[in-house]
Amino acid sequence: MTHPTPAGTPAPDSTAAAAVLRLTDVTLRLGTGQQQVTALDGVGLSVAPGRFLAVTGPSGSGKSSLLAVAGGLQTPTRGSVHVAGVDLTTLKEHQRTAHRRHHIGYVFQHANLLASLTAREQLLLPAHVAGRLDAAARRRADELLDAVGMTARADRRPHQLSGGERQRVGLARALLLAPEVLLVDEPTSALDRARAREIVELLAQQTRAHRTATVMVTHDTEILDAADHVLVMRDGRLT
Ligand SMILES: Nc1ncnc2c1ncn2[C@@H]1O[C@H](COP(=O)(O)OP(=O)(O)OP(=O)(O)O)[C@@H](O)[C@H]1O
After folding, report:
1. CB 162 within 8 A of CB 193
2. Which domains does the chain have, with CATH numbers?
3. Is the ipTM of this complex over 0.90?
4. Residue 48 Cα, ligand 1 centroid: separation in angstroms?
5. Which stretches of the chain score pLDDT less than 50?
6. Which atom of ligand 1 is the closest one to the Cα of 64?
7. Burial class (CB in 10 A: 0-12, 13-18, 19+), 238
């Protein structure tokens, strides 16, 4: 499915006023001395509610660094990162963690599931932590498990799941609380073609339904058409 940009709709770099995620002139240097790498080099990015942005580009071009900075997991060397109106770079660590919990969902490439919890419990845990574990959250967990094709395996723990199944649980977990900003790293890397298509359509549909600002990093060129915009990262710069 293609979602072309309707005439008059601002491009990602011109929606600054409405943006719920906004990176301004972000540079990230990693390592020290001779080993130092400029992972991000003056990156600007704005994503408005309800927009689905895909970022692609060669290995090592800075895509994961972009998500880490946007999600407040890494502090840039220079520049600002506004999420829901607050510059993450000005916050103390505990404030940043709290802000992240309230506003950002993060889907890691390797799901980062807790070994002792079943698939359903993985989804319910963030709702529990947020004090929102009610009947509606349980219903939504079951709906999302169904949407990612995991209903039959909802009571399994991570070691009883395949890599692709874990990846789908990780995505459903991030969607449960319908975050304002959703950052997704390679959501289809362990999935077959048909499943990859279903998953990216689910992301597009949830982005619209909950007015989420979604940024998906991917190497998978076959799923790019589900996004509203595609940007390419090269040598730490977005084009
Ligand atoms: N901890 C680190 N210390 C030094 N350099 C690092 C560190 N982490 C990443 N880099 C370098 O920063 C650059 C950007 O890495 P990043 O992981 O953001 O790229 P990527 O586009 O996500 O790559 P891939 O598609 O392979 O996951 C690369 O040159 C990488 O080698």
Report:
1. no
2. 12-236 (3.40.50.300)
3. yes
4. 27
5. 1-15
6. 22
7. buried
